[in-house]
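Hi W.,

Here's what went into the run:
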Amino acid sequence: MIFAVLLPLVLALFIPFLSKFKEKVHTGIFVVLIPLGIFLYFVSFVGNDFSPIHHTYNWIPSLNINFDFYLDGLSLLFVLLISGIGTLVVFYSIYYLHTSENLGHFYVYLLMFMSAMLGVVLSDNVFVLYTFWELTSISSFLLIGYWHHRERSRYGAQKSMLITVFGGLSMLGGLVLLSVITGTTSIRSMIDQVDVIASSGYLPLILVFILLGAFTKSAQFPFHIWLPDAMEAPTPVSAYLHSATMVKAGIYLVARFSPIFVDYEWFFITVSLVGIITLVWASYMAVRQTDLKGILAFSTVSQLGMIMAMLGFGTEAAVFAAVFHILNHATFKGSLFMIAGIIDHETGTRDIRKLGGLLTFMPMSATLALFGTFSMAGVPLPFLNGFYSKELFFGATLLNENSSSIASFLSAAIPYLAVFGSIFTFVYSMYFFFGVFTGPKKLHLLTKKPHEAPIGMLISPVVLVLGVIIIGLFPNIVNGSLLNHAAQAVRNSTVQYTNIHYWHGFEPQFIMSLIVVGVGLILFLTLKKWSNIYSIIPGKLNLNKLYDKIINKTDDYSARITNSYMTGSLKLYMSIILAAIILFSFTVMITTGGFNNITFDDLAEVEIVDISIVLIMVLAAICTIFINNKLSLIIITGIVGFGISLLFVVFRAPDLALTQLVVETVSMALFLLAYYHLPELRKREETVGSSFTNLFLAIGTGALITMVGIAAHSSDWFKTISDYFVETSYTLGGGNNIVNVILVDMRGLDTLFEITVLGIAALAIYGLIKVRKDKEAE
Amino acid sequence: MEYIILLLAGILFATAIYNLLQKQLLRIIIGTVLISHGAHLVILTMGKLKRGQPPILDESVADYTDPLPQALILTSIVISFGITSLLLVLSYRTAKENNTDNMEEMRGESNE
Amino acid sequence: MSNLAVLPIIIPMLAGIIVAFTNKNVKITRFLSKLFSIISLLVAAYVTYEVFLNGSIILETGDWAAPYGIILVADQLSILLILTTNIIAATAAFYAPHSLNIKQETHYYYTFFFLLITGVSGAFLTGDLFNLFVFFEVLLMASYALIVLGGDKVQLRESVKYVLINLFSSMLFVTAVALLYGVVGTVNMAHIAERVAEVEQKGILTTIGVILFFVFGTKAALFPLYYWLPRPYIVPNPVVSALFGALLTKVGIYSILRVFSLIFVYKMDITHESFIWIAGLSMLFGVVGALSTNNIKLIIAYNIIPAIGFIIMGIGIFNQDSLSGSIYYLIHDMIIKSALFLLVGVIAYVAGTSDLRKMKGLIHHYPVIGWLLFISAFVLAGIPPFSGFIGKLLLLRGALSADEVVITIIALLSSLLILYSVMKIFIRGFWGEKDDNKTYTKKVSAGFIMPIVCLLAISVFLGLGAQFVYPAVDGIAEYLLDPQIYIDSVLKE
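Here's what came out:
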């Protein structure tokens, strides 16, 4: 199975070589063989006696991340869709995309997507699933941005990436949480541990994490906004990714994980509610569109909402209807997208306002569209598969019984909402067909004279429409061999659903269908009168504007926030760092009782000489703040330095005293050298507030050092290691001056690199001066 | 005595910080000089003060001052000296190139 | 045998000195630099092999027994970081001639470069806290020299700030070492750890630990100490930026990892718990910074901060998974950050600007660079199957098994924003129509690109080939969780 999944990805690497010959042979002709092969491989599994198969290939076994491919009914359904529609779409693209386009890139992205999508639906390992999931987002991003010279393409690509990657990351959070709780990375093992998950207390969080992933990917309200903009992609891509496969990944995810959540009431509430809102909202929005692909995009969103809602119901009937509709939607919507592409291709526009009366020019396309749109509308005709699943859906909405008040209220409302949404589905389906193919001809608005598409371009939609009809006429051929297995996989139990009938009496679902058709017809016929209302509602509730606002504000506010503190002011940087150190250190010192064991026992005696040196130094140090003459400042600083060397003398550190004396003298010399080049000191021009802050920070730091020093000095838990140096200085080190022996022997490494530091400093100074000389020379 | 020296170190740190928070380069550099003095005093004090003779072996002496901090200070003094010299030249060059020794005038533009 | 531990310090140091003498002849200097960086890399690889085969190598310099002399400890953590450092150094050595001008090269660039590597390697290897300070100074001094290389007005201005902030934190470092010495009477890290453990980090010790944390945190550019970082990192030549971005902050975070896994591990509710908050704020402010600008170099520089946030998050949570996550992320980030800095260097070179608003349609002229950037963005954001993902996954696992939900959400959110911040460069700069007003004449030679390709290949390997790396990292995490192993290996008791 791993070959089937990775084959497209590996072969994609060879595409760039193929596109060299594209003038003679369209690259797509080679490419189409790949999905076809995969389809034929998987189709051999279909049958009533299908049982799941499982292959494992190691990847990162130490992290439990392996290619665990698990083919059950649900995966099989998706795999067939991916490879089947994939074949048709690639075939269609051979005629749709001219060889002057950058075909190499197109097919690389498309094959990348194919691998990714196969991986998503076959992986039992959650992290491999996630890997492929993000790969679908990436390839979708690249395909939407395929014509990236267009502003709208770039916009759509970025939008889809941001929203789907956001969802993907959220899903990752859920998957990690699940794997932490259950100690496994396999979805099946997780499902076996439903009790463990339920008792962990994390169920709500997991639900939110996973559903965000599913809702963004499957374009559920309010995350659906990326899908209409994704229509900037070439039409084969829209037909494939953004209607038949990728957008169903979220559906797949919910279906796959539903055994974990099915007993959790909030799963029902969230998924059904979001699904049904999406259904209603998007089918209403579809009626407002003027772009053919826009209608189809919103229609896709609404149909996805319908499937999502059914998964939320979770009953046997609902799940069965959901998987049935996944299949049906792929057939009729795929064909409609291709028709839209054909119309665009042959007339030069997709704007329904410029189209009309095309029936006479494109009779073949019109026939295909007729089947597609009527199936989508759920018109009760026995040869339209859309009707069957739509009616099963209506049936499923009636079966819910729930205990809690929110859930039962929702259950009661759902049938009405379902009918309400479906009415608009009917309206836009009719609008699509009749608006394009009947009515007055508007040839003057077109840039091309419309004519029927080449036969090759029609083959793919013909195949799909044949699917619509065959499934419509003989629904039970897909039932036992495919759908039952899929529904079983979702329910994680046997599903007793054997027969789909066209006619089962005047049951409520049939009446619901009739209402939809009846009211829909009236609304469609009076469409013009309603157009005002369509343009008023939803008015200000524009989610796209909200998205744009968020993106712009993100840039805007981040710039504002960052510029407010990243001022380039050293003083501000220092102040923040110091404030953090002071506050945090003092807090810790107080809370840990660091200052509790202060003693005044073990201290050296104070002598007059010491005290006078200290006093002079304190005075000099404080003077540095107030002096406004640079020479005096340098001298005063020198006094502090020389004071230090005197202290070293007093405290029995002769080597230090000498070194300090030398260094201080040289430093003074350096300062005086630089003295000429530095401007005179100015008075400190500070506001009172700023002085106060400085004072606070200065005293705070000083106090911190003093107090921690005192506390450190007071601790007497350990003897220092210095005795060793005294003992071994002569015997092992061969010197009487212990400090020297430490420096050159015991801690010789310090000294070596201290010299290195000096060396670098010297070279750097040399460099700085040389640069100046060079510049002056120029 | 130790606590007095620690207090002195604290005062050196405080004055150093106060100078570091000024605008003029020279003051800031003076601040760094003071802060290294303060740090060295802390090291010295942590080895306890006046506990014995200077750490030069002599048969008549039994107690020596802790030699390790002295070694550490020596290393540190040299390093500080290196940095201070670099800083001096650097700031002189910077003041020349930017025509100011006021750090607040050397913020740069945002997002340049 | 144990002398092996000093080689990663000595070889670059000697190389630095030798190339200082050949400075006048650029061709020889370049050749020697490449040669030495390769030798150094091979030696580092060999030492790594030895360490993983036979355990930590402890070198008592001058044969003075621990804890009295200075100890070099090549354990798995430090040697892995040294290997990574040498990989980056080698790519930088090959990239440098394409990026620097002759003047910069003859201003002892290569000497400073090798001494920077010396300092970094030393900081990773030393087992002595004061010696760590000395190595910090070596690498900082080298970085001061590198940052002013060329001596532009802007460079000088930013380097003064950079030097001052670092000087301050260095002085605080010495003070903290002294204070620690005042309590435990030793500067050897293993010995400090042993003694701190003995009194269970009571009294003033935690406060000293916190001061040390701030010292390292300033170098590592953690919230709220990172303000100094972004601008100084973009003023020097891209190759210098790459070295800074990949190595300097990482030395800081390594020190935190070392000190807060070995020494200060007894008051975790105060120290490590706060790290998690600091991690979250670093991530948020870092990505906000990255989103705030149109300067492509600055975008990458700001991205250092959330990465550091990810690493400190793992240290804060402090369990097996989170620590392996931190280490994995650390290595990943060193590689990808240098790749990205080198890459934006190339982009700025060919586009003639680093202002994103002035670029468009670059992919028509430079497709290879575009796709390299595209992959880098995903690597950086931790999208599988690249290296960032493994680290992030481990961190998330660690966080969620410790019930840290808030930081998990912040981490996920910042991953998205990190991706957005870099993807912006691709979408706005590379996509789009050909820019007719501009002619792109600058050729990009293979030598300019190869170092980046190598680094990216390693990133991909760290992701796809995680099976070869992760068990080692997991072993290191286990080792870090038990400080006694380190203490025993150094003090041999």
